[in-house]
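In keeping with the milestone schedule agreed at the kick-off meeting, the structural modelling team has produced records for the first pair of proteins. Each record is given below as a sequence line and a C-alpha cell line. The laboratory manager (R.T.) confirmed that both were archived under the project's standard naming scheme.
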Amino acid sequence: MKIAQVDLYIIQMPLKSPFITHLGAVTHREGIIVKITDHDGCTGLGEGVAFSTPWYTEETVATSLHMITDILIPLLKKYPIERPEEAAQLFKSIRRNHMAKAALETALWDLYAKQHSSPLAVILNGTQSMIASGVVVATNSPANAINQIEQYLEEGYQRIKVKINPEQDYSFLAEIRKEYPQLPIMADANSSYTLEDIDRLKALDEFNLLMIEQPLAQDDIIEHAALQKEISTPICLDESIVSFDDAKKAIELGSCQVINIKVGRVGGLYEAKQIHDYCLAKHIPVWCGGMIEFGISRAHNIALASLPGFTIPGDISASNRFWEEDIILPEVQVENGYIKVPAEPGIGYSLNEKRLQETLLSKRTFHF
C-alpha cells in the first residue's frame, strides 16, 4: 500500500450531556485519530475508541497510544502490506489490544478503498444503501428516560436501548413500557448481574424486550448459555465477543441469540466481517454497537452495517447526538430513521481540520 506517513492526533471533546451507566458518567471523550498517507498523497482515516480509563475493556487511550507507536507501527514498517487483511493477520502476533489494532486497521481500509476509488461499503461487500439507526438512553431517571425517548422518536430513531442494572431494572422498564407499550426496546446490562439474579432476569421477560445485552460477566459465555435456557428474552453478547473464535463458541454453546459487533472491540473491520459472515450463515442476527465515538469511527460503522446480516438497527446515531460539532465533514445525519451509506470513495467523510485543531491535545508523526 506504499505507506509514507502515519499521523496520530489525540483529541478531547465534551459531550452535549453526560452519558450515565452504573459504571459511571462520561462527560468528556478522549480519543485517537489516525491518518495514514501513501506516497501519492492519498489518505485513510481511522479512530481509536478506547476510553481514558479501563471501564469498558482493559484498554485506555494511553495504552492504545503505546501499542500503536511502539509496537504496531514498527510492525507495519518492517512488514509492508498490500491489503488491509494482511495487517489484521500481522497484528495477530500481538495479544489483545484490539482497539489499538482497529485504529490502524480501519485507516488502512479507508486508504485502500480510496486507492481503488470505491466506497468502503462496496469493498466490504455491503448490500444496503440505507441503514436503520438506533439510539441509547443512558440515565438513572425514568422521567428523563421517557423524555429522551420522546425526543429520539421525534427525530426518527427506530430502536431504543436503555441501560439497566440490579438497582434499576424492573420498575425502570415498567415505567417506560407503561408510556410506550409497543416500542422496540432492548436493555443493556453491561455485565451487572450474576446467575444469582436469575429470577430478577426472568421477571424482565414480561416486557417483551428485543434482547438483553451482556447481562453476566464480560468474559463469560458458559453461564450465559445456562441463563439463556431459563429466560425467553434473547441474550445479546457484547463484551464477551472479542474475536471470531469467541463468536463461534458462543453460538455453538447457545450462549446468545444475537451478537453486537463493535469494530474496536474485535480488532478491526476484517475480524468484524468474519463474525458477520459466520452469524449470517448460522442465522444469528447482528447489529453494530457504538462507543460514544467521533465521526470517523461512526463512518466505519456505517460501512460495516451495510452488510446483509445487520438486520437490527445499531447504535449509529447522528453526529449531533453527542457533539456540538463533530470532526468530520459532512456530519452524520439521520433522516426518517435512516442513515445514507456514502457512495463516495472510502468512508465518504473528510476530516474537519478546524474542529480537529480546536480539540487537539497532542500530535505525533511517523515517517515510513
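The second protein of the pair:
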Amino acid sequence: MRKILVIITLFFITVTSLLSQKIVVAVMQDPDFLDPHRAAASGTYEMMFNVFEGLLKPDSNGSVVPAVAEDYHISDDGLTYTFTLRSGVKFHNGSEVTVDDVLYSLKRLKGNNQERGLSSDFEKFVSKIEAVDEKTIKVELNTLNTDFLEKFIIAIIPANNDNHELNPIGTGPFKFVKYQPGQRLVIEKFDEYWNPELPIVDEVEFRIIPDNQAAIMSFMAGEVQILPRLDAIQAMVLGNRFNLITAEQNMVQLMAMNHAVSPFDDIRVRRAINHAVDKDEIIEIVAGGYGTKLGSNMSPIMSRYYLEGLEDYYETSLVRSRQLLSEAGYLDGFKTKITVPSNYQFHIDTAQIIVEQLKRVGIEAEIELVEWSVWLDKVYTSREYELTIIGLTGKLSAYDILRRYVSDYPRNFYNYFNSEYDRVVKMAIERTDIEEKASLFKQAQRILTEDAAAVYIMDPNFIVALAPDLFGYKVYPLYVQDMSTLYYR
C-alpha cells in the first residue's frame, strides 16, 4: 500500500510539472526601475526584455524587427519614420494597443516644455510625433541620425496606467507578476501575446543571487535552471554534466579613470596606467582565456565599425609606465582607490590583478567594494570616484556605444571632454554612406585610445549553463535573457 502511494505521489508531481513548466534564472542584481523609460541598469533590461516591447524589437542577430508595429518606412532624407501598427496587439491588462498609447509612450520619452523627456535621444533628435490615422504614427527628426531606427525598441506602455513603476504593463510574451527586492522577480506567460507560438513555458523566476558560489550551488542542486555569465573555471566544473553555450557578448570590460580628479586629469598618468596593466594576464587568470583583448570601447563583434590594432596600442611596459609617471611628477607613484560593485565577482577578480600590476610601478591601489545601488548612485550618477571597473553592455548602434564619451552625454561618468571627438561622432551619425560612417567611428575609437580615456581590457565570452533538459536558448549581442523560445524536453 505504501509503495502504491509513493508511485501515485511521484506520478502527480511529474504530471503537475509537465502541466506548469517553470524556469528559474539566477541573476546577480535587483532592477533599478521597473518603469522601462526610467531604467538604466543592464540587469533590469536583462529581465524586463521579456515584458516590454517597442514598435520594433531586437533579434538574436543584432538587427531590429517589427513588434508593436508590423511595418515601417524611412523617408529618403532619413528624417521621417512612419510606423504602421500591428492589429490586435494587447497589453497585459487585456486592453488593445491604440495609437494614443503609442503617442503617449513616445511623447513621454521626448518630453515637452513643462517636463523633461525620459530619453535623451528623443529629447535631442525628435522634433515632432503625430498620428496620421488610427493605425499610423509618424516621427520627424530635427537632425539626421542614421542610427535612430534602433531607438524604437523602447517600450510602448499604456496611457491609462497610473503607476508604471509599481504596476509595469507591456506587450511582451510574459507579463509581470511580482517583485520582491533582494529575492526574486517573477513573470508568467501572456496567453494573448500577438505571436501565438510564443512563449512556451508558463512561468519564469529571476532569482536574485549576488553571491556567485551560492548561485552555482543552487544550479547544481536543481533549484536554478539557467546560470548565465560563468567564468572559465565554473564552466569546466559544470561542463560535463550540463548544457553549456558560449559566444562573444558585445561587452566592454574597462577600468574607468575619473578625468575630473587628480592625477587622472593628466594624460601622462592615464597612459602610464595603460602601460602598467597587462591585459593578457587578466584575460588568462580571470577569464581563463575566454576573452578578446580590447583597445577601445568597441568589441570586434561590431565588425563593420571595429578598428583593429588598438588592442596593442599600449604595450605592457613598466619602464615606459614609470617614465610617464616621472614626467607627470609622480616618480614615487601615488595612492588611489578602485571602486567595484560587490555583486560582480568577475570585476572584483580583475581589480585584484590590477592592484598587483600597479604595484610594480609604485601605484598603491585600494579596492573599495560597494553595493550595486551605491555604485549606480555614487559612480555612474554622481561621478564620485577615482578608478572603477565595470562592464559596459553592447548596443545595436555604434553611435550608442561611442556617444558615452561625448561631452554633453548625461552619463559620461568618465568626465571625458574632447571637442574633436564630439565633432567626429556628430559627423558620423549624420552620414548616410555606410563606409564614410564606419571610417568616422573608427577615427573616434582612435581618439579615445590616444587620449587613454580608460583602460580597455576585454570582451569576456558569454558562457551560460542550462539544465540538461532545457533547450531553445538564444544568444543576443545584448545583455538580455530571452525566455520566450525556451522549452523542456
